[in-house]
Amino acid sequence: MVWLVDYSDLNNLSMTQIAAERFLHDGGFDATGRYLLIAANMRDQMVVIDTKERKFVTKFETGTKPHPRPRSQLGSTPSTDRSARPPTWVRA
Questions:
Q1: How many angstroms separate the most distant Cα atoms in the chain?
Q2: In which band, very low, low, confident or very high, does the pLDDT at 68 lie, cut at 50, 70 and 90?
Q3: Across-strand partners of 17?
Q4: φ and ψ at 84, to 5 degrees?
Q5: The three-state (H, E, C) secondary structure of 12-77, written as one string
Q6: pLDDT category, 11, cuts 50, 70, 90?
Q7: Where are the domains positioned within the chain?
Q8: Is the Cα dihedral 24, 65, 37, 18 positive or negative?
Q9: CA-to-CA distance for 11 and 61, rounded, in angstroms?
Q10: What is the mean pLDDT of the chain?
Q11: pTM, whole model, 2 decimals?
């Protein structure tokens, strides 16, 4: 389960729970800052969450235990424009 919390309005927090996969461990955003990729180590899978639409996109087999580093930018050029996504706190 992944929880996204939009804290752009502290008096009216919005929380979305997204069913994803068991054993979620570590992850990071893609270069656009829109998609969150989270490792499910014990399942040898990666989960992809669309943080703009606030929904599950897909999961895929990695073949071996995935272990992306926190805050790793998965893609060629990391986006520095944080205004592209709403302020969101993620808890997996």
A1: 44
A2: low
A3: 3
A4: -70, -20
A5: CCEEEEECCCCCEEEEEEECCCCEEEEEEHHHCEEEEEECCCCEEEEEEECCCCCCCCCCCCECCC
A6: very high
A7: 2-91
A8: negative
A9: 40
A10: 78
A11: 0.70
